[in-house]
Fold:
Amino acid sequence: MRLSSLSVRGVAGLPDVDFELQPMTALIGPRASGKSRLLAAISWLLTGQPDLAAERGPSPDVSAQLESRDGGKPASRRISRNDASEPEGPLPSVTYLSARARLSSSGESSPYGSSDAALAEAVVAQIAERRLAGAQNEVLLIEEPELMLTPQQQRHFYKLLRRYSERNQVIYSTRAPALLEAINYPEIVRLDLSPSGMAVRRAPPGLLTDEQRVRLEAEFDHERNEMFFATAVVLTEGQTERLSLPLIFSRLGHDPDALGISIVEVGGKGNLVLYSRVLNELRIPHVIVHDSDRGRGDKRENSVIRESVGKAPVFVLDPDFEAVAGIHDRDDKVLAAWRRFSSIDAERIPRVFHEIADATVDLANGSEGG
Structure:
């Protein structure tokens, strides 16, 4: 059994919202965007806890489509919980792990020790044991699985959750790049805050072809996954730009990390459109920077990029980044870029780099996400 869709009405702290769920669904978004409340709403629907009906405010009404198999045949039914009714029929078992309940301050003890890190590691071990025991038809709701885990442990836990979701369902909120994979972009649900409330963003499964998804998988790593949590993103072709642009931003008086800006190199010009399409669907503001490659390459590729990235600002460096930046050492471009921009005066920075920084900062300051 698994939930294939969710409808939330009248839950304090959440707008009315409807969206689809996958066997594994990641909720991302800025602080106070509603991630934890959505997990609580799903738990209340299936178990009655935490008791949302006892809270001040409107009367909550949460429903979902429950998919199952009856004698091997697919079956679907609507379940709901409100003041007048509770879900009927068999329901999946539920484990709801809030962040607060997993910290030692909650008073819990663990055979792994009493520190926060030990309790976090105990959760990983417990899920591994449930999977090895053949658990199925369970719904695991977990707030920030990455808490108190090292980067290596986070990656291990993500792989474990993926295996667990093969026979169960996992719905979690996260702010960790290690808990996402670009190739599984349909599983990512981004919650954005806006003046009118919360907006749900997700990329449809058919956005990219299988070939394009494999290209993303080949290029993506956990550093690139940071873009899903950014207020604004700069997409660049290669490593020289990725190293140089943070230095340029800093010399111009901007701290990209403080502003929530990610500068992401995409592994080549041909991947810019793929990254941009995913970011556009999730409504993550971004800027695109690429070489014109005047005198070499296909001019049509530049037109395709400009026509395919929606409203994203595009900056074309003619003929390439090194020429515009005044980098003449082509044998070690990265080192030459570091030497040039690590101590350069702001007034000596080429104008186009000022424009890139200004456009990105404006997007970060005005974006709805974070």
